Amino acid sequence: MVIPPDFQPGEKVWLASKSINATRPTTNLSGRWLGPLELFKKIKSHAYHLKLTLQWKSVHPVFHVSWLEPVKKSTIPNKHQLPPPPVLEKEKKEWEVAQVLDSKLKKGKLWYLVEWKEFNQDSERTSLEKASSLKNSPDVVKDFNYFQPDKPGTNTWRVLFYGALWGLDLTKLSSSPGIHI
């Protein structure tokens, strides 16, 4: 069994570049280590909280000890380490939903036809999206389900869930107004 190094707060460490989802198109030319970074505190025996600068604001500051390497003092007099280039995490673009146009059940999953607010010539104005991918647009989905009660939506899932739970005959429910199965 390998005993992990015991770092102290304030100590400088290198962070393995594999632990960060960087914007470089290929990792072949990237350095293996990022930093040096300062340790803020020990979280557990195998986890450390690092002091990160603003350029790292989207990166979670706690890392496993296997991603860290201690900075060794240079034996060459007057040698200074150059600061590393900024590392930017890949941005996850999220488009704003203008409105939900339609919904359907496909292989037991709820899908919405979405119209996007901003789009360019290269992207589509509408697309079919899983209900789970619209979790940041609850008001738009809620409006659609309210104004289109006969379309599959959140109420459909409640009916299917509780119907199965209570052993109801769902074929009788499909003729009910506002319920589309």
TrEMBL record:
Coiled coil: none annotated. Residues 95-144 form the Chromo domain. Transmembrane segments: none annotated. One of its GO terms (biological process) is chromatin remodeling. InterPro entries: Chromo-like_dom_sf, Chromo/chromo_shadow_dom, SH3_Tf2-1. It comes from Austropuccinia psidii MF-1. Gene3D superfamilies: 2.40.50.40. This is Chromo domain-containing protein. It comes from the Eukaryota. Pfam families: SH3_Tf2-1.
